[in-house]
Design brief:
Number of strands: 0
Largest sheet: none
Number of helices: 9
Number of domains: 1
Shape: globular
Radius of gyration: 23 Å
Distance between the termini: 48 Å
Length: 224
């Protein structure tokens, strides 16, 4: 049997430009992924500011700001949690640094959400804020989620990893799942009629938790 090596070499040569192009695209995405993630994360806030600037604040601007910042804070937490499954199951190693970026963006929206509630809704009235916290359980749940996100944001630096040690730091940052779950409960509690957005968020969180559990079970089987 005679093999035409020229056609094989020709096919390989034809594939080289495609491979080089794919590598260049991958390298460009890795270089610009952080900037792209930051840009996309700021879009909801920019869109809200532009809408207010062009069309006025509307009938209830405080409610609008509260809704946008809270919902996008939750979405970005879920997006940050999706990074690890994407890296493990799909092999997208380049996205690994985006987990911290998206997590910090989620904390920024959560901080704006809290500031809107405390500053604009309650005018920093300590008595009114304390009453909300003690008499409205959904506020307490939301505050618990924010406290966890704040702890994770403060300890998101390399210096914190060195001070805490890798094992303790990793254990602490697993609390992001609790923060996400509390945020989903907070969202459910606030919705009065249309529960679909909260159901979608709860479903995404369930899938992410399932992916994490499946990976741990797979790792346990391999090590046994």
């Amino acid at each position: 049997m005679i093999v035409d090596t020229r056609s094989c070499r020709s096919t390989e040569a034809d594939d080289l430009p495609r491979r080089d192009r794919a590598k260049r695209i991958g390298a460009a995405l890795r270089r610009h992924a952080q900037a792209l993630a930051i840009g996309l994360a700021t879009l909801p806030a920019v869109a809200l500011a532009l809408r207010f600037a062009l069309h006025g604040p509307g009938a209830n601007p405080i409610e609008e700001i509260t809704h946008v910042t809270g919902e996008w804070g939750l979405r970005l937490v879920l997006a940050s949690l999706a990074i690890t499954p994407a890296r493990r199951w799909l092999g997208w190693r380049a996205v690994a640094p985006l987990r911290r970026t998206l997590g910090l963006a989620a904390f920024a929206y959560a901080a704006l959400h809290l500031a809107t509630w405390a500053l604009l809704d309650h005018a920093l009235d300590g008595a009114a804020i304390a009453e909300d916290l003690t008499e409205r359980p959904w506020v307490m749940v939301g505050m618990a989620s924010f406290v966890l996100l704040a702890a994770l944001a403060v300890t998101s630096t390399r210096g914190s990893i060195r001070r805490l040690g890798a094992a303790r730091w990793t254990a602490l940052h697993r609390a992001v799942y609790a923060a996400a779950a509390l945020a989903v409960v907070h969202h459910f509690w606030l919705l009065k009629a249309d529960l679909r957005p909260a159901i979608v968020h709860a479903g995404i969180l369930a899938v992410l938790l399932g992916a994490r559990l499946a990976w741990r079970l797979r790792a346990a089987r391999r090590s046994s």
